[in-house]
Amino acid sequence: MDDAKDTGEGERDAGDAASPPFRAAVESLRAARLRPQIEVEATPAPQRLAPFAHALEATVVDGDQDLADGRLVLLHDPAGHEAWRGTFRLVTLVRAELEPEMAADPLLPDVCWSWLTGALQARGMAYGEPSGTVTRASSHYFGGLAERGANSQIEIRASWTPREGLGGVPDTAAHLSAWCDLLAQVAGLPPAGPGDASVVSLPQRRGPQSR
Hints:
Number of strands: 6
Strand order of the largest sheet: 1-2-3-4-6-5
Shape: elongated
Helix content: 10-25%
Largest sheet: 6 strands, antiparallel
Order of helices and strands: HEEEEHHEEH
Oligomer: single chain
Structural class: alpha+beta
Number of domains: 1
């Protein structure tokens, strides 16, 4: 199951029939304290990947600019999943626009992937079975659209298995915080604290983008 490629909309979400560990994991997500520049809200969850799912979408905002956006999906299969090696799985999609010179950097995909793993490690998160892709794309405009400048975008799709703690529940609030650290880095926000001083982020995009 290549769950890193499927964060599309669906209908299955947390409900009365969910297992206690899943309900606790969702409550932990809701209790997470995040950077004020990152706006997070619940969104319809996919129903094809697991018996239970809960999805969030986030936007990194600076004034009237949207610097990056993403989607994080918590999956749960009480019976466990062989590919996950656990009963929970986190699946994400993160996107941001880039300066053209940054998009041309051959090391960019490796750096972006290291931001994900580094964010989890910096939060002390135990996880396993990571997988994913980093894609960069450029658009050039012609004819009636020639007045637009070239546009480049980075996209990170990934999934990993959060290790379960007491009661079989992973610390999803900390995983969400780590994911928001990744969003902040991709968006080019400055480090949130002294512990993040070594982080190198993408330059912020030029010009406002309407929301």
